[in-house]
Each structure stands twice: as C-alpha cells, then as structure tokens.
Amino acid sequence: MQPSPYTPGVIAPEVPGRTRQLADFEERLSYLVDLRRLDGRIHVDHAPRGFGKTSLLRNYQRRARNRGVLAVWVTAGEGHLIGQIAAELARETAAWSETARRKFGATLDSLTVRVGVPAVAGVEATVRPGAHAPAVPSMSREFESVIRVAAAGDKHTAVVLLIDEIQAADPDGLRTLAYAWQHLQSEGADVPAAVFAAGLPNSADVISGAATASERFAYRPLPALQPQDEELALIVPARLQGVEWRPEALALALDTARGYPYLVQLIGDAAWTAAGRPDPGAWIELPHVLAGREAMQDDMEALFRARWSNATDMERDFMTAMAQLGDGSVRRIDIAERLGVTSASLSVPRDRLLNRGFIQASRRGALEFTIPGFADYIRIHDDN
Description:
Blueprint: H1 19-33, E1 42-46, H2 53-66, E2 70-75, H3 81-92, H4 98-109, E3 112-113, E4 124-125, H5 136-151, E5 159-164, H6 171-187, E6 193-199, H7 203-210, E7 217-221, H8 227-240, E8 244-245, H9 247-257, H10 261-274, E9 283-284, H11 286-295, H12 297-309, H13 313-324, E10 330-331, H14 332-339, H15 347-355, E11 359-363, E12 366-369, H16 374-383
Parallel strand pairs: 1-6, 1-7, 2-5, 3-4, 5-6, 8-9
Antiparallel strand pairs: 10-12, 11-12
C-alpha cells in the first residue's frame, strides 16, 4: 500500500504542461543572474482557479533559489502589498552579515508603510488604518531603494519578488510597485531584480485600474492542459512508484479531466484510492477510474455549489442560458437569443463571470465553462 502521488487542491511539486512558462522563466533567470540585469517587465500568469498558478509560481521560487537568488514570496490581500514585501525581505535577510544587514535595515527604516500593520524589522507603520496616505510616487522611490539594496545584498545573485493572488492586492501597493519598476527601467538597468506574479483572469483590469504605469506588466494566460500533458501528469507520478495505467483507464481519466489541471489531480487521486493504494507492480484499471469518478462527485458538487451560490441573479441567468445550449463552446449571440436580449446587454455579466474565472473565451465570440461538468450541474439545478 502506497500513498497517492496526486495532489488535488495542494501545491504540486511538478507542473506538467507548463514547459513554455518554465523555459521563459529560466531565460529571465539567466538574464538576472548571468548578465546581472533588471527584468523591466512585471510578469503575471493568470487563469481561473484550479489551473495550477500557485504551483507554477512555487516552481519559479525553487528554481530561483537553486541559482542563489533571494526569492521572496507574498500572497496579496493579506495586508498592504508593500508592507508584506518589506516584512518578507526583513525575514529573508535576517541571516545576512551584520554589515549588510545594518545597511539594508537602514533602507527599510526609510520605507513608511501607510497601513496599520505592526512594525517589523525596521518597517514602521506610521499611519493608522484608514488614514490619508501621502502621494504614491514618493513612496515608490523608497521602495525602489529597498529593491536596489536587496539586489546588491549579502551572498546572493539577484532578487525576485513572487506575488500570488495579485488581483487581491491593494491599489496603493500596485501603484507603488508599478512606479518603482518604472523608475528602475529608466535608471536601474544594472539592478538584478524581477517580479513574477499569478492571479485570476481579472488581474489586468485590477492592475490597470490602480496604476497608469500598468504597461510595465506582461500578462500571460495559462491554458488548459493538452492531452499529452494530461497523460504525463497521470502516468509519471504513478510510474515513479512502480504503478502503471491501463490504456482504457487512462482514456476515461482524460475524458473526465478534459484539460482542467485540478481535475487531473482529483481523478488520479480518486482512482489511486479505488485501486487500494497499489503496491509496485500493480495497475490502475478501468473499474478503478469508474469508482474514482463516483467518489469524486462530492468534491465536484461542493465546488459547483460554491460557484453557483456566489453568483448574482444576472450571472445565474447567463450561466443557465449557456448550460441549456450544451456542454461545450457556446456563441454569445446564442446566449443573447436564449435570454431574449441584445448581445451588447450581456457585457456586464459576461465580464464578471470571466473575471471570476467561471467561464472563459473558447474562440472569437464564444464562451465555455472553465470546469468540466458545471453545465450539467446547472441543468440539474435548474430543473429542480
């Protein structure tokens, strides 16, 4: 009996199907470490929930640290973005030499965080919650100085900021980050620093609404997995533990997941459990996948129920019309006809659903649900 190698809902150690993203990151990493240059664009990978954004960002962090980079992680929305970054920098640099730590601490002391957070290692909150904040550009210069000193610090090759859930960051923090990178582009080309972030599909709208310098950001959608990548995500973890998949079992698992990374892990884990957590030399058979599909229904029901309950009446009407038109790609004009309205009048609910990651564009003028099986859930719910 062996534990499952699949990881639904948790950080995955590997990210199948993200070869292009990893290659791009390695190229940027070489630019930082080998050429000692600034990466002037702030990179944002965006996709609906369940597409492996956080796992990919953690993979970036591991790769950066393997190259001797100071790789600082924050999850936006847990406080003021700049305060979070400053606190993590202070923690990560605590083991620096006394001279380097003193110099960095003096720079941190000049960075005033304008929200009510406790003072951390030289970062002082001088303004109570809700107090009027000074203009962002002045703070961006202070933050720029922190990045410069961190990049030139003790026994590391560069600094990389990794920001998860960037769409949840406070507007002031996003403006400070954008302006600081704008200054560095103009005056700090020799500062080996970079920012990589992950967020929901509305990340670009949130950032552009907060910062006029949002053209400094490079946005890249994460696509669904291709069939060959899904196969690798299922076969390789099992094979590493001496277990193989029967072709017919693998085919049904792929049909169940349909390119959605979370479902790949979920059906893999459910089939593994149904197979009795197999020992080396065993096979995952078709009955195991059939049993796994039944077992995972509770997880799917909970996921679908949460999405449906969090939707507005207008959003529910939109999704119901989509579901009634089928399981796959649906034309926007057909949704409008189904609802008896003009296509233009659907812009608000469509944009909200796109931004929340409930639906995605499948081709020009057409939409589809991001999670396989959601259309069927809506039809059953609507009938009841």
